Amino acid sequence: MCGIIGCCSNHNVLHNTIDGLKKLEYRGYDSCGITFLLNKEFHTFKSIKRIEDLTRNITVDGGLAVAHTRWATHGKVSLDNAHPIYSTDKKYIIVHNGIIENYLKIKETYLKEYIFYTETDTEIIINLIDYLNKKYSMLDSIKRLYEILEGTFACLILDKNEDKIYFIKNKSPLILGLSNELIVTSDILALPKNTRKYYRLKDGDYGYITKDTYNLFNINDQNHFLFLDYYPLNYDVSLKGFKHYMEKEIYEIPDLLHNYLNKKYESRIINALKNSNKIYLVASGTSFHAASLGALFFSQISKKESYAFVSSEFQIDNTYDEKAIFIVISQSGETADLIKAISKIKKKNYEVIAICNVENSTIKEMSDYFININAGVEIAVASTKSYTLSSLVLYQLSNIIINNLYIEKLAYVINNISNVFDIKDRIQKISSYISNKEHLYYLGKGIDYLLCNEASLKLKEISYIHSESFPAGELKHGSIALISSSSIVIGIITDPLNASLIRSSLEEVKSRGATVFVISLNSLSLDNDTIIINDCDKYLSFISISIILQLLAYYTALNLGNDIDKPRNLAKSVTVE
Ligand code: F6R
After folding, report:
1. Mutation pick for ligand 1 pocket among 464, 574, 576 (CB with most ligand atoms within 8 Å)
2. Closest CA to 439 of 472, 479, 471
3. What are the DSSP E strand ranges found in 48-172?
4. If you take atom 7 of ligand 1, which residue's CA is the nearest one?
5. Has residue 545 got a pLDDT over 90?
6. What residues act catalytically?
């Protein structure tokens, strides 16, 4: 979603600001803009195309700039609505991530005299600064935003008479990077490589950076700035010869899995799970699909009642058992829907275990226990390695809490995982067949149905082919009406208990003319199956199957020439509800 970067230096900052903005592209955006402050004058450039287009039009450079990638929420995609956004009198400028919930009330209460040029909630904030700055210092005006604004906001604000970038953060990420220049950004990936260390701002933090220094305050804690946790910057975002980050990230899975073979989990987490009688999992999108696998593992392997919920639909009521525990799953650790769900859970005093790929994330901060999946930065919008690793963590936990010996079974799968990449040509064959089709259906039952759900999401996200996933037994209750001679159905068969039912459903669609591809486990396979994987414990088939289905989505999108790492309308970190 939206991205922010602001740089202050004794040198020109165009290069680092635009470079940072490009690194924010993966989050998804539909317009972008930059403002330089030079000799008390703002110079603003905007584009409703890509950052290359913005860069072509920039005619100045200087030591202070703020820039933004916008993913439209309030107001359409337009140059006016693109950030940075001016106050009415053009004395102040702002870039903002998040959503102001009470913006209409603020307009009514404080800003009747102001003229508005955009449809954004952001313009309210910058005019409010103008209003407050008539009575208070700039820093106090920034601080007072906390009293007035409701919602989420990470903002950079400039006053044209001061060579400073003011910042404020509430429930939307913001990071302070220290290198030859001072940088405030919403994402560590946007920091230049030579950044010595960074600090992840906390809610309630506000302050400013200048060319040489920074000043940081917190509304709740006066001495807060004395005890800051700084982190060194260490990540690798090179493509390493792959065409796309998505492909690279799928190919990283085998090495990442090896790190999990002897994985130890904190005993307090294991005990918390052991002591619970019900396990609820909450997440969104692909992480929800990992959560659904988790619910199946806890129910069937650990024999604990367990359910998965989509975060945006999650409601808490008093029917949850006192000894229930919640597991939340998020790659980014910043998903707004999940943050809202966690707030509801915490209000009822339940304990929360977070499974996440970002160490210093909001979701980690809100949770009682934290498991870092350590997948390394995931840049492609379509989540791949995080799904496989989060699912693996859940598989391990479900075994560990009942002292099940699982390591040998897991080692077998992990040691043979490279076979999956050897059948690339067969995956590509299916992808060439489906690339020019408009609809596709995945069919499975039990764990295979859960794998189909994720396969279907992955395919539609990056290929834009309409795809749906059906439980095999449910087909006859309605969806079979869709099947005709132009239909394509992919069946997944890895569970001996369900194999024959999926086979009969596939026969039913075949007899109505559908083209069928089957991905099956060796011992359950038939001669004509398209892809056959090595036998393994039925709860571990998700490892090979998820990689195959991720590659299938990838090759299909590749055939179609789509922008694979940045699919249309999608954002990597969904920070709005
Ligand atoms: C799909 C995808 C999204 C995310 C979802 C939740 O490939 O990436 O569906 O899984 O937006 O995001 P996180 O896991 O960051 O909470």
Report:
1. 574
2. 479
3. 64-70, 85-86, 92-97, 153-159, 165-170
4. 382
5. yes
6. 2, 572
Contacts for 440 with CB less than 8 Å, ≥ 6 apart? 434, 456, 459, 465, 466, 467, 468, 488, 489, 490
Give per-residue pLDDT as tens, 252-308. 999 999 999 889 999 999 999 999 999 999 999 999 999 999 999 999 999 999 999
Q: How far is the CA of 487 from the centre of ligand 1 (A)?
A: 28
Q: Could you give the percent of the chain with pLDDT greater than 90?
A: 84
Task: For ligand 1, pick from 292, 309, 335 the residue to mutate: most ligand atoms within 8 Å of CB.
Answer: 335
As for ligand 1, residues whose beta carbon falls within 6 Å of it are 284-287, 330-332, 335, 338, 382-383, 461, 574
CA of 333 to the centre of ligand 1 (A): 10
CA of 287 to the centre of ligand 1 (A): 6
pTM for this prediction: 0.81
Within 10 A of 470 (CB to CB), how many other CB atoms are there?
24
Strands 197-200 and 175-178 come out as antiparallel
Measured by CA distance, the residue closest to atom 11 of ligand 1 is: 285
How many residues are present in the chain? 577
Residue written as token pair 């307090």: 268
pLDDT at 27 over 90: no
Tokens describing residue 491: 């069946």
Nearest to 366 by CA among 282, 291, 271: 282
Which pLDDT value is given to residue 225? 67
* pLDDT surpasses 90 at 223: no
Mutational test site, ligand 1, from 1, 246, 249, 286, max ligand atoms within 8 Å of CB = 286
Instruction: With CA atoms as reference, report the closest residue to 444 among 493, 514, 488, 509.
Output: 493
Tokens 């994330």 correspond to 361
DSSP 407: H
Instruction: Mention every residue, 6+ apart, whose C-beta is less than 8 A from residue 322.
Output: none
**488-513 pLDDT per residue, tens:** 999 999 999 999 999 999 999 999 99
Q: List alpha helices for 5-102, DSSP H.
A: 14-24, 51-57
- Ligand 1: which atom is nearest the Cα of residue 572? 8
Phi, psi of 154, deg, nearest 5: -125, 120
Which atom of ligand 1 is least distant from the CA of 382? 7
Residue type, 511: S
Angle at CA 415, nearest 5°, toward 496 and 535?
15
Q: In Å, what is the CA distance from 359 to each residue of 220, 274, 362, 363, 377?
A: 23, 25, 9, 9, 11
Ligand 1 centroid–CA 175 distance in Å is 21
Span 292-324, pLDDT tens digits: 999 999 999 999 999 999 999 999 876 677 799
Tell me the CA–centroid distance for residue 290 and ligand 1, in Å: 10
Identify the residue whose C-alpha is closest to ligand 1 atom 8. 383
